[in-house]
Amino acid sequence: MKASLVKLLALTALSISVNGCIPRIPAIPATARVETPAQWHEYYTQTIQNIDAQWWTQLNDPVLNQLINEALINNVDIALAQVRIQEALALEHASRASLLPGINANGGSTRQKSLNAFGVANITRVEQPTFQAAYELDIFGKNRNTFQASRLSRQATEMAAAATRISVITTTVKSYITLRALDEKLNLLQKTLNARQRELRIAESKANIGYTSQLELNQAQAEYAATLQQIPVIQSSISQQEHALSILIGSDSRIIERGLSLSQLHAPAIPAMLPSELMKNRPDIVQSSLLLAASDANLASAQAEFFPSVKISAAFGRVFSTAPINEPVNIWSIGGSVLAPIFEGGKIQANFDLNVAKRNEAAWNYRKTVLTALKEVEDQLSSSYHLQQQEQALEMERAALANALHHATNRYRSGYSPYLDVLDSQRNLLSVESQLIQSKADYLNSQVSLYQALGGGWTMVKNLNIDKP
């Protein structure tokens, strides 16, 4: 037995020497590596130190909380992400089987009637149950690296599911904020329409008694119609927004219940986070890192294809026979084999080169993911800061236009100004009030997007030991 093992090892060594030069795994391209900055470029208002995993509850709207609960349970994208995890887990279990020995059992039974040399008929019955085992000695790590790659791919799929969950939550919040903004705009238009209607009635009364010209009546009619035609557009947008929210929560189209008004919603507090901390607080970055590690494992497995495959096998059984012997006989066998690639037409080398390219592609994808994440945070930081400034300016403009409308109305009633000055002031005030509603919604959505860019409250699972390339 010892001599056979020595021969097997000698044959393995000979196969390696015959196979020739084994290619080395090249390093990741230096230009594909990424270094995170020490601080954010944009102004960052740090409000709290801890990341709130249920940050949306800070808006204090129970209706929104219920919508998110429904989305987390019924959303189709989340369900698909969970199914993909099951698929990846099945592939992981399948690749793990290559690390274990294969054991089979078989049995056969024969019954034969024959004549012996003396012309006497004999009936022979033979039964032979056998157990067979085969195992590939993973000396060079081919199967082990394949399993490692499948395990990392499964973990990457879990990170993709976490990213999907964050996306569904933030999209639901932003859709709800947009819906409440549309409600505010509709309410503004309806109030404005009521005011225009009262002014139209006054203009009609004045025109009927000849106190004003037909021009002022036509101007009042046009202003009333201009306001009226905007209402169906907003109503259509509200319906579409309700349809979008219904899909997010996994429901057919329905009327969405309302909670707090837009002005009552408060932006969630943004946690203090450095750019370096973003690497472990965004699931898409962790996913990209896992895929890079999986590509490294696949590359190592492809390199092992250049080495010989060493297999051992064993079998054990018993033979039960009625003739020529009546006692059972034990049978067994044990052996080993070495299969070394000598000429494959460049197939193994091409597979190795392919995996090198895939590893480099994964490295560039990791760099792109990190740079995109940094950009998204910087964009939202800039957006939030400037939207606050815009809202302050709009508040000042609205106050000035409200005073201008007051003075224009008084001057018109006193006969010092034409009715057109009143109309211009009304239009300008309505436009600014609509912009102010949109600015408030944009600021809230920007803060939500900033929270999403920072990872949405997700934190990396502790048992995932992923090194940044």
Give the spatial strand order of the biggest sheet.
Answer: 1-2-3-4
How many independent structural domains?
1
* Percentage of β-strand residues: 5-15%
Question: Class in CATH?
Answer: Mainly Alpha
- Largest β-sheet summary: 4 strands, antiparallel
Provide a short characterization of the protein structure:
The protein has a single domain (25-100, 144-307, 348-453), classed as Outer membrane efflux proteins (OEP) (Up-down Bundle). It has nine helices and four strands, in the order H-H-H-E-E-H-H-H-H-E-E-H-H.
Walk me through the topology.
Layout: H1 2-19, H2 62-74, H3 76-96, E1 102-115, E2 121-137, H4 142-208, H5 214-228, H6 230-248, H7 283-304, E3 309-321, E4 329-339, H8 347-413, H9 419-453
Antiparallel strand pairs: 1-2, 2-3, 3-4
Helix pairs in contact: 2-4, 3-4, 4-5, 4-6, 4-7, 4-9, 7-8, 8-9
Plain-language structure description:
Belongs to the outer membrane factor (OMF) (TC 1.B.17) family. One of its GO terms (molecular function) is efflux transmembrane transporter activity. This is RND efflux system, outer membrane lipoprotein, NodT family. Its main location: membrane. Keywords: Lipoprotein, Membrane, Palmitate, Signal, Transmembrane, Transmembrane beta strand. The structure is a single chain. A hairpin with a 5-residue loop joins β1 and β2 (121-137). The protein has a four-stranded antiparallel beta sheet. α2 crosses α4 (142-208). The two termini are 47 Å apart. The radius of gyration is 38 Å and the shape is elongated. It is α+β, with helices and mostly antiparallel strands. It has a single domain (25-100, 144-307, 348-453), classed as Outer membrane efflux proteins (OEP) (Up-down Bundle). The protein has helices spanning 2-19, 62-74, 76-96, 142-208, 214-228, 230-248, 283-304, 347-413, 419-453; strands at residues 102-115, 121-137, 309-321, 329-339. The protein has nine helices and four strands.
